[in-house]
Design goal:
Number of strands: 16
Largest sheet: 12 strands, mixed
CATH topology of the domain at 96-322: Glucose Oxidase, domain 1
Helix content: 25-40%
Shape: globular
Structural class: alpha/beta
Number of helices: 23
Strand content: 15-25%
């Protein structure tokens, strides 16, 4: 047995048949052949009939946090795992989960209108009529409020929109804002509105983004009907996710909890989501400035900004209850490295019936668990321990995964080697994002999975799409896709259960799922159910099977590797791009300020909105200093040197034979490899949000789900905090040097 040189690894330049016999990264030649045999057996197990049956059962009734069917589903999942012979249990936590007590929205001037605030049942959709069990339409973690105020339309309600309002001479101070879904995560909209002095926030789905403008609406088609409403959390998750009352610690029964009035992740103003049917009369009553063209949706009205003459009354009041969560955890002990864990997760709770979100992913994880159990009975023994986790409480704020991981933080810091997540799933292309130390690894897995429609590999189909989507004017982007041995994967921000693992604990993580060919317009509504999914998404469940094959194979390959298959060339290449981006961002910001000041001096202002009214002159800004990016450059150089040393060490190991990594030496090398992602974190976290510790990836403070890479540097530049930017460049540069040292340490273990 011998380890294979990096140069001989399967890089996707081969035909699929050759790839099936090519050595795997982190495996010797013999162990690679054995692993591929077990993986082939696993890929044959997932059954579309089982996936359909799981969904029909799990999505049969509403199963939000605290509901009877949520607990029933958890117990049913546990019973299946035990039936298959797996060691499984439920871990329960107690979390703050508010539900509506009162909701009201009325137009009181210049005419009267009362919003319906209800989604009607559809005759052909049997579960849409389960009224008594459905959560009403609301935004979780809005504060209580009863306000009457003028209305102002703020487009998507992101910071850039308020800059436009300022130029238009429109203030939201003392007003209720109405924002459309899109442009950012929903929780950012009330956050920014409150910072600008608004007293309430309404969020609606505009048909331009989520409705008839896109195609036929449900039940004739997949898109959101006029009375459909997107529920969802508005917790300030970019500060910290999980239970608002137990930041940083698990929400166990005896946990010390904050008083409700000290929970900083609740909104500062009341919030309510509405349908576009309820939003239309409110928007039609607005006058004032005509909205800029890019702000106009697809409703049959002239979009005005306001304020006035529209005045609205908004009232929300909640039951602020502590509810139980039910995380279902199955454990498969590792034979060689039981203290190194590969963790796989998908949540099981939903806002209502949740067929697409999350049961399509939950069902795939169940089939993976059944497949793992079947292989164990055939004699397969993973080298590392595998944890299969069915999280509760993801929808309100990543509650189940966060509370579990915070409870087990010390164990996870020592033992977690990787986390693989999925969420919703549908027909289409493989979406893969995550830690760039796993980029080469997941590309290799994607080359093994057959696309159900094209019969090519899912990797090849994704590459073809990437080439087609490359901008026709960007030859460099097209060339990058064609020439690079691996497809680039996206970075992770937040929005699903990987957040606590990568952002807080520094565990290498992946998020996987299929989609892009199923047009969804029922997100977080009563219409996300078995009827919709089997008519408009993965009707025959072949992409559910593909997800089970993809994630299951990834878990097996990580669990069985002799050396953890991390790659640091992709990490270095990606971080170099991020460094170049923040350098350009700083230069662009400086140029913009200089040009804006010049226009102010010249009396030239870009006309915005109604051309009959003058725009408001902006104020001049101080020209920012030039930032010193040398610490980042030095950190990047250290990272690159270490990546090269590690690659050379891997080659030497393969040339010297398997004995070079026998016994304790191999264990030591793996332990040091697990330390690399941890080295990219800082205990003190990001500025003003210490829970987020990763210095390369984080959700944006004003994007919510969307990732900000090199977040401390990037956001301080975006917010024009130049002194902070200088400080964070130094901190992140040292973090990169620490990661380089960790890689050097792993390379030394290979000597």
């Amino acid at each position: 047995m011998r380890l294979i040189p990096v140069s001989l690894l399967c890089l996707g330049l081969c035909a699929p048949a050759w790839c099936q016999t090519a050595p795997l990264r982190g495996y010797s030649a013999d162990s690679s052949l054995l692993e591929r045999d077990w993986e082939a057996k696993f890929r044959a197990i997932p059954d579309t009939a089982n996936l359909r049956a799981y969904m029909q059962r799990l999505a049969a009734r509403p199963h939000h946090v605290g509901s009877a069917y949520d607990q029933d589903n958890a117990e049913w999942i546990l019973a299946r795992l035990k039936e298959w012979g797996l060691d499984a249990k439920i871990e329960s936590f107690d979390v703050l989960f508010p539900t509506p007590k009162e909701r009201a929205l009325e137009l009181v001037e210049p005419s009267k209108f009362t919003a319906r605030l209800e989604e009607p049942a559809v005759a052909v959709d049997p579960t849409s009529s389960q009224r008594d069990e459905q959560l009403p339409t609301y935004n979780a973690y809005s504060i209580d409020g009863d306000v009457t105020a003028p209305l102002v339309y703020v487009n998507y309600g992101v910071p850039e929109d308020y800059e436009t309002l300022e130029r238009l001479g429109v203030s939201v101070k003392g007003a209720i804002v109405i924002a459309r879904y899109g442009g950012s995560w929903r929780g950012i909209k009330p956050k920014v509105a409150g910072e600008h002095g608004a007293v309430g926030c309404i969020i609606y789905s505009d048909p331009a983004d989520d409705g008839y403008h896109e195609g036929e609406t449900f039940p004739a088609g997949p898109f959101r009907p006029k009375d459909g409403v997107q529920r969802g959390s508005v917790m300030d998750m970019p500060v910290y996710p999980g239970d608002p009352l137990t930041p940083g610690i698990g929400a166990t029964k005896d946990a010390k909890r904050l008083p409700l009035n000290e929970a900083v992740t609740l909104t500062k103003i009341p919030v309510l989501p509405v349908s576009y049917a309820d939003a239309q009369p409110l928007l039609a009553a607005l006058q004032g400035r005509v909205a800029p063209e890019r702000w106009r949706g697809a409703l049959p009205l002239a979009y005005h900004v306001g304020p006035g003459p529209a005045k609205v009354h908004l009232k929300v009041k909640f039951n602020w209850d502590i509810k139980p969560l039910y995380d279902v955890i199955a454990r498969v002990p590792g034979e060689a490295y039981p203290d190194q864990w590969i963790i796989r997760g998908n949540h099981h709770d939903a806002w209502v019936n949740g067929a697409e979100d999350p049961v399509s992913g939950t069902s795939a994880l169940l089939e993976e668990a059944r497949g793992v159990a079947a292989l164990l009975k055939q004699g397969w023994k993973p080298k590392r321990t595998i944890l299969l986790c069915f999280w509760d409480g993801e929808e309100p704020g990543l509650l189940g995964s966060t509370e579990w991981a915070e409870t087990h933080a010390a164990e996870l810091t020592r033992s977690a080697a990787a986390y693989i997540n999925s969420d919703g799933n549908g027909r289409g292309y493989l979406n893969m994002s995550g830690s760039h130390t796993l980029e080469k690894f997941i590309n290799g897995v994607a080359r093994d999975i057959e696309d159900p429609e094209t019969k090519a590999t899912v990797w090849k189909r994704l590459q073809a799409r990437a080439i087609a989507n490359a901008s026709s004017g960007d030859a460099a982007e097209r060339q990058d896709v064609r020439a690079r041995s691996d497809l680039r994967i996206g970075a992770l921000g937040s929005g699903s259960d990987y957040t606590v693992f990568i952002d807080h604990l520094g565990v290498p993580s992946l998020n996987l799922g299929y989609g892009g060919e199923d047009e969804g317009g029922i997100y977080h509504s009563i219409y996300d159910d078995f009827y919709w999914y089997t008519h408009f998404s993965d009707a025959d469940f072949v992409y559910g099977r593909a997800l089970a094959q993809t994630a299951g194979e990834a878990v097996m390959r990580l669990a069985d590797a002799e050396l953890l298959p991390f790659d640091f060339d992709a990490l270095t290449d990606t971080v170099r791009r991020y460094v170049n981006e923040v350098r350009k961002l700083a230069a662009d910001k400086r140029d913009q300020i200089v040009e804006r000041n010049r226009q102010i001096d010249d009396g030239v202002f870009a006309a915005t909105g109604d051309p009959r009214r003058p725009s408001i002159a902006p104020k001049k800004e101080a020209v920012p200093p030039y930032l010193n990016f040398a610490p980042l450059d030095n950190g990047l150089a250290a990272l690159q040197r270490a990546a090269e040393v590690y690659a050379q060490a891997m080659t030497r190991v393969s040339e010297n034979g398997a004995s070079a990594l026998a016994g304790a030496a191999r264990r030591d090398a793996n332990t040091r490899l697990m330390a690399v992602e941890h080295a990219l974190t800082l205990q003190e976290g990001l500025p003003n949000r210490e829970w987020f510790k990763h210095q390369i990836y984080a959700p944006g403070l004003y994007t919510g789900y969307g990732v900000k890479t090199l977040p401390a540097v990037r956001e301080s530049i975006e917010q024009k905090q130049w002194q902070l930017a200088d400080q964070e460049i130094v901190r992140v540069g040292k973090t990169l040097e620490s990661a380089g040292a960790a890689i050097d340490s792993a390379a030394a273990a290979l000597q």
